[in-house]
UniProtKB/TrEMBL annotation:
This is DNA mismatch repair protein MutT. One of its GO terms (molecular function) is bis(5'-nucleosyl)-tetraphosphatase (asymmetrical) activity. InterPro entries: NUDIX_hydrolase-like_dom_sf (IPR015797), NUDIX_hydrolase_CS (IPR020084), NUDIX_hydrolase_dom (IPR000086), Nudix_hydrolase_domain (IPR051325). It comes from the Bacteria. One of its GO terms (biological process) is AMP biosynthetic process. It comes from Streptomyces lydicus. CDD domains: NUDIX_Ap6A_hydrolase (cd03673). Residues 6-134 form the Nudix hydrolase domain. Keywords: Hydrolase.
């Protein structure tokens, strides 16, 4: 009998800022050249790290933005390289900072909710935009 693998623990944010666009906000997506994908900023938690602390750290590392975390959003559970992975998400408003490309994240795009939904590579990331809009009472 095989023991179920413990899920990889990760956390991230649906990062947003106020804008003159649709719904009055823009959502940040990051491009990771290693996977050639567009996603919300997220990453693995360090051993013993609180999920919210890790989510804010990942946003800073991947986008250069300081953020103000808000409402929790749905947790994503899926297989990554054959291992179960759980990613906890929060809504987070970008409050300051600037993006610097790196080997991990080479591009940052600020998009309307409609454009962000279309650009996301993984279908599982799209409902997080609706959850953000609901949390901000914009849906």
């Amino acid at each position: 009998m095989t023991t179920p693998q413990k899920p990889v623990r990760a956390a991230g944010c649906v990062l947003w800022r106020r804008a003159a666009s649709e719904a009055g906000l823009e959502i940040a997506l990051v491009h990771r050249p290693k996977y050639d994908d567009w996603s919300h900023p997220k990453g693995k938690l360090k051993r013993g790290e609180d999920a919210l602390v890790g989510a804010v750290r990942e946003v800073a590392e991947e986008t250069g933005m300081d953020c103000r975390p808000g409402a929790p959003l749905p947790t994503a559970s899926y297989l990554a390289n054959g291992r179960p992975k759980q990613v906890r998400y929060w809504a987070a408003e970008a409050v300051a900072g600037s993006f610097t490309p790196s080997d991990e994240v080479d591009r940052l795009a600020w998009l309307s909710p409609t454009d962000a939904r279309a650009r996301l590579t993984q279908e599982r990331d799209r409902p997080l935009i609706d959850a953000l809009l609901a949390a901000l009472h914009l849906a």
